[in-house]
Amino acid sequence: MNNSEFGFETQAIRTQLERTQFQEHSVPLYLSSSFVFEDAEDMRASFTEEKDRNIYSRFSNPNTSEFVEKICKMEGAEAGYAFATGMAAVFSTFAALLNAGDHIVSAGSVFGSTHALFMTYFPKWNIQTSYFDINEPETIESFIKPNTKILYAESPTNPAVDIIDLELLSVIAKKHNLILVIDNCFATPYIQQPVKWGADLVIHSATKLIDGQGRVLGGVTVGREDLIRQIYLFSRNTGPALSPFNAWILSKSLETLAVRLEKHCENALIVAEFLEKNPNVNSVKYPFLKSHPKYEIAKKQMLLGGNIIAFEIKGGLEAGRAFLDKIQLCSLSANIGDTRTIVTHPASTTHSKLSVDERLAVSITDGLVRISVGLETVKDVIADLEQALS
Ligand SMILES: Cc1ncc(COP(=O)(O)O)c(C=O)c1O
């Protein structure tokens, strides 16, 4: 079925591979490394791409194609390619589009491994990155140079839940002829579609809310067809492809994305409101709380507030560690976007190698705690947080 008039949930459920002769209702798993050809001419025409068909699962696979097609419909994007992880998507997107001597302008608050790519690995190939403060978008243009090619940001950010105006980024990108790339992992296409605001490419770690159950790793980049073509050719040769099994899982997960997100966000708002009233909490950052500094922008570009909350515990580093030690029901884990609520303390874990100043530059204070609110009964999550905060 291919009706663009269908609603989000219908597209997520009814975008499906053609049935085989077995007339299966649920899509089967195509665990096959390669595909066969009728004859020499069929093989030749397939390799020259005169025929659009599967050749080898590093290039494409039916399960992967179904997953990508769904994400494209959800994001309103022309084309896409699926990766083994979110980081494979981030790396391959940049590596495919940039040449030695090119320059990236990015928000400083980006996921830790993306920061490592920008600061440790890309400079090896003479690709430099300048960071702007996500809370000072008026400074962005001052970082743009003649060799700047990509403007990059996450919104909301990991882990501080900062927000940036996607429409404003798009205006700047168009004015300076830059490719606007947005990591939409914290929002998912149900909550926010950056293409609608003018993004050229959208990246997801599908490992998070798209899987939603903490099972498999995956990533995807969708957007302008001409750019995806370059990313596809790069990836076809370098091999970061998503496995058919993970694609099958992720495509099934998309069928329930909307209902899961409704509940995740409902729970998260209740937890955020509870935290705002707790005497041991200094401040809470959640996009749909009026106290979020970018509340109006969040309301403009997001359908719901997401499932991630950042809050500042009173007492700094030690209080953050003590809080984690007292947690009983929620999990201490590095993932986010699971059915299970997960709490982390970035200053003593994921970002402990950064100096205090480096952490502050990306809005990570010593007492910052990140919660990925799950789908448990919300009063049980609150009871656990309350006893751990007391
Ligand atoms: C915003 C963001 N982008 C990218 C990634 C990388 O995704 P993956 O862990 O699937 O490689 C993450 C992982 O936490 C993330 O939070």
UniProtKB/TrEMBL annotation:
Cofactor(s) needed for function: pyridoxal 5'-phosphate
Pathway stated in the Swiss-Prot or TrEMBL entry: Amino-acid biosynthesis; L-methionine biosynthesis via de novo pathway; L-homocysteine from O-succinyl-L-homoserine: step 1/1
Gene Ontology cellular-component terms listed: cytoplasm
Lineage: Bacteria, Pseudomonadati, Bacteroidota, Flavobacteriia, Flavobacteriales
Sections of the chain in a coiled coil: none
Function: Catalyzes the formation of L-homocysteine from O-succinyl-L-homoserine (OSHS) and hydrogen sulfide.
InterPro entries in UniProt: Cys/Met-Metab_PyrdxlP-dep_enz, O-succ-hSer_sulfhydrylase, PyrdxlP-dep_Trfase, PyrdxlP-dep_Trfase_major, PyrdxlP-dep_Trfase_small
Source organism (scientific name): Flavobacterium micromati
EC number: 2.5.1.-
Keyword S-adenosyl-L-methionine: no
Gene Ontology biological process terms, A to Z: 'de novo' L-methionine biosynthetic process; homocysteine biosynthetic process; transsulfuration
Oligomeric and partner information: Homotetramer.
Keywords per UniProt: Amino-acid biosynthesis, Methionine biosynthesis, Pyridoxal phosphate, Transferase
Any GO molecular function: carbon-sulfur lyase activity
Top-tier EC class: transferase
Catalyzed reactions per annotation: O-succinyl-L-homoserine + hydrogen sulfide = L-homocysteine + succinate
Pfam families the record matches: Cys_Met_Meta_PP
Modified residues (N6-(pyridoxal phosphate)lysine): 208
Protein family: Belongs to the trans-sulfuration enzymes family. MetZ subfamily.
Listed name of the protein: O-succinylhomoserine sulfhydrylase
SUPFAM superfamilies named among the record's database cross-references: PLP-dependent transferases
Keyword NAD: no
